[in-house]
Amino acid sequence: MSDATFSTLLAGLKTGDIVPYLGPGILAGATNDKGEAIPADSDSLIYAMNNGQAMAPRLMYEFPRAAMHMELKRGRSFVNKFLSTLYGETAWSRAPLHDWLASFKPAYVVDINRDTQLQDSYAETPHILITGISRIGGTDYRFKIYQFDGNDYREVSQEGADTSLPILFKPMGTPRPEGHFIASDADYVDYITELMGGFAIPSFVKQYRPEKQYLFLGMRFTRDSERMVMSDITYAAGTPRGWALITEPTAKELRFCKRMGIEIIEADHTELMNADAGKPAGAGEAQLVGC
After folding, report:
1. Count of structural domains within the chain
2. Beta partners for 146?
3. pTM
């Protein structure tokens, strides 16, 4: 059983020893001008993609499955356009967690969401952006690398990237600077296959990540695709692999996290932010389970 507390997690985040790994839940609080929450998790994305209507039960199981159905029915461009419009052309208010991350700008962040709020947090800071790609010819790799100079992005090679800059890794894509997304089942099959083979992560990230630990924020471990992506992205992690803030973990999550060496802390990411702000409310006393 680790004696990790909010204070040690916060210290690790700020030194870079602990890497933030961002899931859909961190976008809580982001809304459009109508007060509607930004679609981020599997169900909300399916509803948004299908004009607010539920799809067949077998398609509601997971967003990639629903996206595959729409791709077969209306073409791959439909799914890409949907995600580009949703995250690149719709104005969303800032999620509190992103404002908090912006206050100390971690050196390396993994964000499996497809929005641009993490990039906005580094809008005045030169950085490296890595985005996942799939089913694209002419390359052995399943990523693109962009370098931001404070004004614009430009694509760079692995060798040409300035690795002294903060690294933002968005494996599922982003609409900016180009709208590439991992969305449908076919995308995930291609991407995860190459991820397992070592072709979806730049060499400089492979050199950087050994013995790093991760703090999973807004991340649930109930979806197979997200669990497989996480397993390979966090390869060569330290012991424990990391910590996950989950208020009510399911039995499935408890089993998975125990097997993966992830310690569950029954708390919400807002409690972590409160602890950093010096607010009491039991900061640092959250219960560790599944160890």
Report:
1. 1
2. 129, 155
3. 0.94
